[in-house]
Design goal:
The chain is of the alpha+beta class. The protein is built from three helices and four strands; from the N terminus they run E-H-E-E-H-E-H. The two termini are about 20 Å apart. Bound molecules: iron/sulfur cluster (SF4) (2 copies).
Length: about 80
């Protein structure tokens, strides 16, 4: 699954996501949070645990699918078998 991980400016480098993530996506180096989003397995735990709600994990494949279905519905095309 392809994901994109956004970390907002409210991050205070508390290390909770770094300690929690089961696949080591997060690493705090000095005063910055490094994100290896290609490792993410989309468990969403970091989003839930971040005390300042700085993290957003978005599944790109699902986004594309939702956009495709919405476009088909808007055009009146049949969705059967898609
Ligand atoms: S849990 Fe949230 S505030 Fe803490 S280091 Fe991670 S992104 Fe930053
Ligand atoms: S969603 Fe799960 S696997 Fe992905 S970065 Fe967050 S804690 Fe790690």
């Amino acid at each position: 699954m392809r994901v994109t991980i956004r970390v907002g400016p409210s991050c205070n480098l508390c290390r909770i996501c770094e300690e929690y993530c089961p696949v080591g996506v997060f690493e705090i180096v000095g005063r910055s949070l490094h994100v290896k989003q290609e490792l993410c397995i989309y468990c969403k735990g970091c989003e839930v645990l971040c005390p300042v709600k700085a993290i957003e994990v978005v599944a790109l494949d699902e986004d594309l699918e939702i956009s495709r279905v919405t476009a088909l519905r808007g055009s009146g095309s049949a969705l059967i078998g898609s």
